[in-house]
Amino acid sequence: MKTIYRHFNEIRSILTSFDLFRDQFKCYKCGQSQFLVPHDIIYTPHKEPVGQRIFCSSRCRHQGCGATIRLYAQQVIPGKHHSTTKLSAFITHLLNNETIENAYRQATGTDDARQASRWLHKLHLNLSLFRVRLNMAPASIGEHWRTSSRRLRLLLPTFRQLVDHFPRQDVCQSIQLLIQKAVI
Q1: Residues ≥6 apart with Cβ < 8 Å to 7
Q2: DSSP single-letter state for residue 29
Q3: Cα–Cα distance, 126 to 129 (Å, whole number)
Q4: Among 31, 35, 48, 156, which is most buried by a count of CB atoms within 10 Å?
Q5: Among candidate residues 51, 73, 95, the one where a domain is terminated
Q6: Are 36 and 135 a contacting pair, CB within 8 Å?
Q7: Mean pLDDT over residues 11-37, rounded?
Q8: Tell me: the pLDDT tens digits for 132-146?
Q9: How many angstroms separate the CA atoms of 29 and 58, rounded?
């Protein structure tokens, strides 16, 4: 089931005529589609709409399970504070041979770089998924990617291939839309 869409307006247009698209959605928990009901809108901290929830209704004689499905626009990372634009900037700074801390600070505009290693760890966990979905061969580690971080030595060649694969697009938005899963 598709859970990440290009724009919030695409989600809204599908959910305004939800009865026509009901067969595209199934509850991940119980497999029902006839009891799904559009629910509330998901906002950023700046009150910008970025997604919507669909509820498997167990109210008013409906026999759903009560689970909630979240549909997101591709510019947000589900469950995270920062956007895909900031994560893509972080990747770009890393590809320009900046340190992990400096890349994080420049991408997010914060002084604290505690989350940088967490971002790298989560990207590393999804590395094989990126390669499989994009039919990428394991990237070779060249002289250009000599770094003391083992994780970066594995990630940077794949990041370079991803940037080359999506030349005029936000890399993280494109990946999320393709794999239908949060990048980190």
Answers
A1: 73, 74
A2: T
A3: 5
A4: 156
A5: 73
A6: no
A7: 87
A8: 877 876 665 555 666
A9: 13
